[in-house]
Automatic annotation (TrEMBL):
Role: Binds to the 23S rRNA.
Domain Ribosomal protein L9: 36-63
Lineage of producing organism: Bacteria, Pseudomonadati, Planctomycetota, Planctomycetia, Pirellulales
Coiled-coil stretches noted in the UniProt entry, renumbered to this chain: 78-105
Family: Belongs to the bacterial ribosomal protein bL9 family.
Protein name: Large ribosomal subunit protein bL9
Pfam families referenced in this protein's UniProt entry, alphabetically: Ribosomal_L9_C, Ribosomal_L9_N
Length: 180
């Protein structure tokens, strides 16, 4: 590659504001778990900024103009965040009142032939008009026995809910049973 081509390729990186640790300074447009909240000034590695945060619209380049705008609207952002947290807390309270039942094939000792995981829990919640993503269901491992489980549901970085999940044996039909 010629020097001119190299300079053009690297000029994109030079325009991004550098942080004190050599990373890129960005202003978060949305909350990003394990990084920061909306309006925070963060410093990240160039690859994370260019390949994830900027293309996904989660952050913008931290220009002086953007910083002034965030300072100007910081109180409004705080109010919006408080409303979101209240909404998530209300959803957590509703989930705590819920109890879902999932049928599964099991042997006489109550051990499941398969297991119940986040997919089955999410599908069961859809039947009661609650829509969650599978990664919001936090299990220590798949449910492999019949019984009542309290499952954690991650709604927000600051809000977690509990959901009661009953795993019950599948009701066998009378036809096809040996000796019936």
């Amino acid at each position: 590659m010629s020097n001119a081509a190299t300079r053009r390729a690297n000029s994109h990186f030079k325009r991004l504001p550098k942080g004190s640790n050599g990373g890129i300074q960005l202003l978060l447009i949305h909350n990003v778990e394990h990084l920061g909240k909306q309006g925070d000034l963060v410093e990240v590695k160039p690859g994370f900024a260019l390949n994830y945060l900027l293309p996904q619209g989660l952050a913008t380049i931290a220009t002086d103009h953007h910083k002034r705008m965030v300072e100007k609207h910081r109180e409004k952002l705080r109010e919006i965040e408080i409303q979101k947290l209240k909404s998530y807390q209300d959803q957590a309270d509703e989930l705590a009142k819920q109890s879902i039942t999932i049928e599964a094939n099991a042997n006489d000792e109550g051990h499941l032939y398969g297991s119940v995981g986040p997919h089955e829990i999410v599908e069961s919640l859809k039947s009661v008009d609650i829509h969650l993503a599978q990664d919001q269901i936090r299990l220590d491992g798949p449910l492999k026995e019949l019984g009542l489980y309290t499952v954690k549901v991650h709604l927000h970085s600051e809000v977690e809910a509990s959901l009661k999940v009953w795993v019950v044996p599948t009701v066998a039909s009378e036809t096809g049973e040996p000796g019936a």
